[in-house]
Amino acid sequence: TNAESARIHWDVTDQDTGWEVAYGLNDFDVSLETPEAVISTDFPGVTLPNLEAGSYYTMFVRSVMPDGTRGGWSESYFFRTYNAETELPYMENFDDSTLDGFAPFGWQVKDFESNWMLVGSDHAYSGRNCVVCQADGEIDDWIFLPCFKVDRQHDLFVSMRLRGSGTDGGTVEIKAGNSATPEAMTLAITERQDLTTSYKVVKNTISTPDSGSKFIGVHFTGPKDCTIWLDDVFVEDRGLSKIETIENDNDNSIHISLNGDLLLADFGENSTGRMTLSDMTGAVRIQRDNYLSGTGVNVHLTPGCYIVCVESGFANHVAKLIVR
């Protein structure tokens, strides 16, 4: 599944030549309710379009014979679509995963000839599970993380642990794009690099060129009979990029911290600076000039996203704060 569609497959008998699929929201019962749609197909699989993001669905399948005779509806099958955008920071170590094909809810694979699956702690770097790919032939796969909302010119940090098998353990590169397709992956996050037989951290920080929804794609290649392991995926928005920061002396610095919803600003003994807090519309919420030692800011913020700008001596710093 993704945010707006789901691809469903089912097992067949030699006598089956056609099928009908009925589906509806939540606890839909085909014997009692009118389905959202009935889709006819001569292939044992179908893509259900125009679904609602973050919703639960129930579907049924029945066979259709060449003479038009219809069988009974199957037992119900449940699935859900993921939310259109997943909040950052995002962490996935697969330990709490329930199997949805190969990996956590919202992930997608673009090569169904390979066998991606969840495996236990003997192979994981940490915790109980990791994801492994084992293929009879060569590996040339894309795995896509859920969709994330990003802001223009923010530092996007992506990190994951990977390892391969044998002397040629395969390669990996990480990219981002506007949709979960290989051809849409136009923004390079890491260069292609070799995998080793021990777990290695593959990571990088990039500045996002525009705002909007982005998918992160991980492209794996490997020789015949190669095995690749994936664990500990982390994605974080680290705030505005391209900010030049100059460290001041300790007595001419302003230290900012966020403890829950409490914003604290500690002005150094001899600091002469300004702190400005704005919301995401650009409206200034707090602006504090300080020319006296021992003063600062101690204020509770309402939930939301903020931009804090600190100017102290020769140092300027801008960061994004999220209050939940």
Properties at a glance:
about 325 residues; mainly beta; 7-stranded antiparallel beta sheet; about 50% strand; 26 strands; 6-stranded antiparallel beta sheet
Summarize the structure.
This protein is mainly β. It has no helices and 26 strands. About 3% of the residues have low confidence.
Report on this model:
By secondary structure, this protein is an all-beta fold. Helices cover 0% and strands 50% of the residues. The protein is built from no helices and 26 strands. The protein has strands at 6-9, 19-25, 37-41, 45-48, 56-63, 77-80, 90-92, 108-109, 115-119, 130-134, 139-144, 148-150, 154-164, 171-177, 185-188, 193-194, 200-207, 212-222, 227-240, 254-259, 262-267, 273-279, 284-290, 296-300, 304-312, 315-323. The strands form 6 sheets. Strands 8, 11, 12, 14, 15, 16 and 18 form a 7-stranded antiparallel sheet that branches. Strands 7, 9, 10, 13, 17 and 19 form a 6-stranded antiparallel sheet that branches. Mean pLDDT is 78; it is low at 241-251.
Total count of strands: 26
Please outline the major beta sheet: 7 strands, antiparallel
Category by helix and strand content:
mainly beta
Q: N-to-C SSE series? A: EEEEEEEEEEEEEEEEEEEEEEEEEE
Helix content: under 10%
What would the average pLDDT be, to the nearest integer? Answer: 78
Low-confidence stretches: 241-251
How many angstroms does the end-to-end distance come to?
28 Å
What does the radius of gyration come to?
25 Å
